[in-house]
């Protein structure tokens, strides 16, 4: 049997080792169990198109990923949650402000859409572990220096990452947004697709 034939035979084993091993009556290998439970939204170093500006942030909403470009063709990829279908924000902005344990005030549009959920916070909510903006927030500003009301922020709902659930902001797990917060300075360009 040549190497190509061996690889073709082994391919199904590599694709689904636990299933093949279970059929043989053997326990699944530890690496097979780890591969099944690996979190696709944990920070990961990845290749990216080389035409993105080093230091910039690129968000691909439909894929639920934020990329912090660390070098030409390289980025750290983070999982995110984005706005519900009608609330997805797209465009170019810059990080105009950064805040640790930010306070939060729902926008008038949020209160109008869902007064039962948001009206009680119309005067704001102080920062802290129960605040929906989580541990850190990066405030996005447009080309004219106006606050877009869009934030890249932490969350009290880490299970929302990988879904369209927000009111337009880009959510990250608290550990991830804390890491990004330390890496990006004010003025960082942000591209949201």
Describe it:
The chain has 193 residues and is of the alpha/beta class. The protein has two domains: 3-37, no CATH class; 44-192, L,D-transpeptidase catalytic domain-like, CATH 2.40.440. 25% of the residues lie in helices and 28% in strands. The protein is built from six helices and eleven strands. It has helices spanning 3-15, 17-23, 30-37, 108-113, 115-118, 174-183, and strands at 44-47, 57-60, 65-71, 74-79, 82-83, 91-100, 136-141, 147-153, 164-166, 170-171, 189-192. A nine-stranded mixed beta sheet has the order 1-4-3-2-11-6-7-8-10, covered by helices on one side. The chain is globular and about 45 Å long. The chain starts with a helix and ends with a strand.
What is this structure, in a nutshell?
By secondary structure, the chain is an alpha/beta fold.
What is this structure's SSE topology?
Layout: H1 3-15, H2 17-23, H3 30-37, E1 44-47, E2 57-60, E3 65-71, E4 74-79, E5 82-83, E6 91-100, H4 108-113, H5 115-118, E7 136-141, E8 147-153, E9 164-166, E10 170-171, H6 174-183, E11 189-192
Parallel strand pairs: 2-11, 5-9, 8-10
Antiparallel strand pairs: 1-4, 2-3, 3-4, 6-7, 6-11, 7-8
């Amino acid at each position: 049997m040549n190497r190509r034939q061996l690889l073709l035979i082994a391919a199904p084993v590599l694709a689904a080792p636990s299933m093949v091993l279970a059929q043989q009556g053997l326990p699944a290998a530890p690496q097979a169990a780890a591969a099944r439970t690996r979190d696709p939204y944990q920070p990961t170093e990845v290749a990216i198109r080389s035409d993105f500006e080093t230091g910039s942030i690129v968000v691909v909403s439909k894929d639920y990923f934020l990329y912090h470009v660390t070098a030409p063709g390289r980025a750290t990829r983070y999982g995110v949650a984005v706005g519900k279908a009608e609330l997805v924000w797209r465009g170019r902005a810059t990080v105009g402000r950064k805040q640790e344990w930010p306070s939060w005030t729902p926008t008038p549009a949020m209160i109008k859409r869902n007064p039962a959920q948001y009206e009680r916070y119309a005067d704001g909510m102080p920062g802290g572990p129960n605040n929906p903006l989580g541990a850190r927030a990066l405030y996005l500003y447009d080309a004219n220096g106006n606050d877009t009301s869009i934030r890249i922020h932490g969350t009290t709902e880490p299970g929302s990452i990988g879904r369209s659930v927000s009111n337009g902001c880009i959510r990250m797990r608290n550990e991830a947004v804390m890491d990004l917060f330390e890496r990006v300075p004010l003025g960082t360009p942000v591209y949201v697709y």
